[in-house]
């Protein structure tokens, strides 16, 4: 869908609250190999075709296995003209087709910006119910930040010289920590392939993949206590994940990891850091607030189980 990429990215960024560039989108298309199911609505004119609506149905690791995430967005000029209704019909037809093959989704998830009540109302009229609220926030990296303060004996390392054993160790810890987040509580543990796709994504620089490591012991080089991951986005850096093992919490490790990521991003000339947090993740929201993250519009996730 290279020809429609600009319109697709513009509309899906609006619907999802992202800042994805066309270049990054196309790179992701090549990386994924098999693209999700998509439909694009266009209008013609003297200047050529213009994308006025998009729809997508895809698997997503933050919703239950067997479910699909639906994205449907229409430009303001395309509303009230039947574009959204046609796209919704196309999504419904694809779901019914999958059900006919025995591979139909067990449920659907949609997102709506929390400053867009019309989109939420649209979803609720179709039987979707609120499942989660996530807050987006942004930190201006042009402002000075304090350096990280580590508890006695704790040091930071990254994955620039990681061995295969190091990557396996990280992937196991990452999968364990994901299950302790509000986003994935009660859901299946990520597969090794899912974790590997996240931590080894080309946007996730090894020097931005940080580990808080305890003091060396006679048995080894020290327990890994927490992880912080930064990925490249078009506006700068995205703090993808920060988490600390239960036994190491209460020492300020999450704050120290984030400040180390801030320091490295600033050294690389990055001027902005973004992140998202589940509304139930009060400790991390408090850490971000104290660091000076500015709230942006959040996202509501609504679910509907299918018969």
From TrEMBL:
Transmembrane segments: none annotated. CDD domains: NAT_SF. Residues 154-307 form the N-acetyltransferase domain. GO terms for molecular function: acyltransferase activity, transferring groups other than amino-acyl groups. Coiled coil: none annotated. The keyword Transferase applies. Pfam families: Acetyltransf_1. This is GNAT family N-acetyltransferase. Keywords: Acyltransferase, Transferase.
């Amino acid at each position: 869908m290279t020809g429609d990429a600009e319109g697709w990215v513009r509309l899906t960024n609006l619907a999802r609250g992202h800042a994805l560039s066309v270049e990054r989108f196309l790179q992701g298309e090549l990386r994924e190999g098999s693209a999700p199911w998509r439909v694009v609505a266009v209008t013609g004119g003297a200047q050529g075709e213009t994308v006025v609506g998009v729809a997508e149905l895809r698997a997503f690791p933050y919703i239950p296995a067997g479910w699909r995430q639906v994205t449907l967005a229409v430009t303001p000029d395309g509303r009230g003209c039947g574009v959204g209704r046609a796209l919704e019909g196309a999504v419904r037809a694809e779901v019914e087709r999958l059900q006919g093959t025995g591979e139909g989704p067990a449920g659907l998830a949609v997102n709506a910006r929390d400053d867009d009540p019309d989109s939420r109302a649209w979803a609720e009229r179709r039987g979707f119910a609120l499942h989660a609220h996530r807050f987006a926030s942004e930190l201006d990296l042009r402002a000075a930040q304090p350096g990280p303060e580590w508890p006695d004996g704790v040091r930071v390392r990254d994955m620039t010289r990681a061995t295969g054993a190091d990557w396996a160790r990280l992937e196991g810890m990452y999968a364990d920590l994901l299950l302790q987040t509000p986003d994935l509580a009660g859901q299946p543990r990520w597969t090794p392939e899912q974790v590997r796709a996240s931590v080894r994504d080309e946007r996730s620089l090894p020097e931005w993949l940080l580990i808080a490591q305890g003091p060396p012991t006679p048995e080894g080089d020290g327990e890994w206590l927490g992880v912080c991951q930064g990925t490249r986005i078009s506006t700068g850096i995205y703090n993808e994940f920060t988490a600390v093992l239960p036994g190491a919490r209460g020492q300020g490790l999450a704050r120290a990891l984030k400040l180390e990521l801030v320091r490295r991003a600033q050294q690389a000339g990055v001027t902005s850091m973004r992140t998202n947090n589940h509304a139930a993740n009060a400790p991390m929201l408090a850490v971000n607030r104290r660091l000076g993250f500015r709230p942006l519009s959040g996202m509501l996730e609504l679910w509907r189980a299918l018969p």
